[in-house]
Amino acid sequence: xxxxxxxxxxxxxxxxxxxxxxxxxxxxxxxxxxxxxxxxxxxxxxxxxxxxxxxxxxxxxxxxxxxxxxxxxxxxxxxxxxxxxxxxxxxxxxxxxxxxxxxxxxxxxxxxxxxxxxxxxxxxxxxxxxxxxxxxxxxxxxxxxxxxxxxxxxxxxxxxxxxxxxxxxxxxxxxxxxxxxxxxxxxxxxxxxxxxxxxxxxxxxxxxxxxxxxxxxxxxxxxxxxxxxxxxxxxxxxxxxxxxxxxxxxxxxxxxxxxxxxxxxxxxxxxxxxxxxxxxxxxxxxxxxxxxxxxxxxxxxxxxxxxxxxxxxxxxxxxxxxxxxxxxxxxxxxxxxxxxxxxxxxxxxxxxxxxxxxxxxxxxxxxxxxxxxxxxxxxxxxxxxxxxxxxxxxxxxxxxxxxxxxxxxxx
Length: 411
Prior knowledge:
This protein is an alpha/beta fold. It has 2 domains: 3-130, P-loop containing nucleotide triphosphate hydrolases (Rossmann fold), CATH 3.40.50.300; 136-409, no CATH class. The protein has helices spanning 11-18, 34-43, 55-63, 65-70, 87-97, 116-121, 136-139, 146-152, 165-173, 177-180, 185-207, 215-225, 233-237, 244-256, 285-291, 296-301, 303-322, 369-378, and strands spanning 23-27, 48-51, 76-79, 104-108, 126-130, 158-159, 229-230, 260-263, 279-282, 330-335, 341-348, 351-358, 382-389, 393-396, 401-405. It has a 7-stranded mixed sheet, with helices on both faces. The protein has a 5-stranded parallel sheet with strand order 2-3-4-1-5, with helices on one face. It has a 3-stranded antiparallel sheet with strand order 7-9-8, with helices on both faces. Strand 10 and strand 11 form a beta hairpin.
């Protein structure tokens, strides 16, 4: 399964950005398709290609970043630019001298938004396009209108075919193109483990001096087991002879590499009883399944873990859908001290919606408790909410609330 065979919906925002921004950074985890996207868009338009994964190119740029950037062709792709952070200042100087749109396509496997010195050096000169592993909509080769339907509450009563065990297969498959190309579970697991080892040995060494590199794969396993739970650093630190602040720093490092996400809590000032702790989500459920040694049939039978993996799967799918929309949404979660919760809160401007995720094939009025509490807290900002579940019937539950089959995310 070659990612070039699938449409990347991020191509549109990339082209839009190149029309008016001197530099565009496509960033996301390694092996999610950044290079393929950059070359597909760039080489058809005359862009030259250089990668800092190549030792000679990296050495040349490190030794003389100003000269390296000045000697580049008028339109250039610089791949894995985080490996030579020295070039950011040189790119700034070059852009300031010749401020033409579309000069540079950069790709990076580190979130520069979490490295203020890098982000600030190109502020106002660089637009950022986030690329994720393949979404289910991209795998289906059809754009999804789910987010638009959610904010407009366009959910007509009807029926859709239940996914059942196929949903578990989608969860353990994940979205990395190279992993999906391997139909055999054993070979796919091998790819994910080699992938993690390569990141630890290459990207982590580039980003930070960490004495306990061997702790990171184990920490990723623990994070996978904690996905869709409130972040608890003490639980993550338990197996290690390392301090809580050290483990907290490691979690931030994994977030910079797009391997985990911290989903902040939604709250407003007058809401005194809301929980403010973030949730932890693994960056891709296929990766998590490998770390937990879970096949689809095993995961499907372990319902508590299956429910949390499904929540992460839906959250990541929504983020992938939202990343290329005209108005990228903000994501959070909601929980109050009475136990009412909404798995995913999505905000666009002043309006917000809620998404609750259920692994069950049926929905009852009790499943909307958290959404009703969110509606009371948000007031006029509340646009509506859905319970996504693995059932067949799409039906209203009153008060701008709907039960919607999960496959509506891409079908």
